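Marked as duplicate of an earlier ticket. Keeping the data here for the record.
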Amino acid sequence: MTQTQRITSFALGAIGALIGSAIGYYIFIWIAGQGFYGLAIPGAFVGVGAGICIRHRSWIFAGGCGVWGALVGIFTEWKFAPFTADQSFGYFIRNLGDLTPITKIMFVIGAALAFWFGLGGIRTARQAMKERLIKAAQKDS
């Protein structure tokens, strides 16, 4: 892969991550309106969007997806349920430690999924399935 192709791949992955962020945010809001709490969804969609769009595996890019997934989760929680004492984002960030344990767990799960999907988890699984199908077809013939 040439340098230009690699830069293009990173740019596509970043665009996919941003689109995934928005989709994940709105899916979370919709699901929360139904009475369910899926705070890992925005982070997971960061990775899904990035993983679909990026054309190569990169641990650094996946790490960036994980960090971005955690930040999107924090932003989503702030928009969904800000503190009643002060609804500013700065106050929310300063008091992250006061959030419930399940909220913190959801941040971590969202970041981990963003990392895994951003590393190409979807593409890797798809490639493994394709290889199995090819082997099965060769075995039968």
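See parent ticket for discussion. The helical segments are 3-33, 40-53, 59-80, 89-94, 101-118, 121-140.
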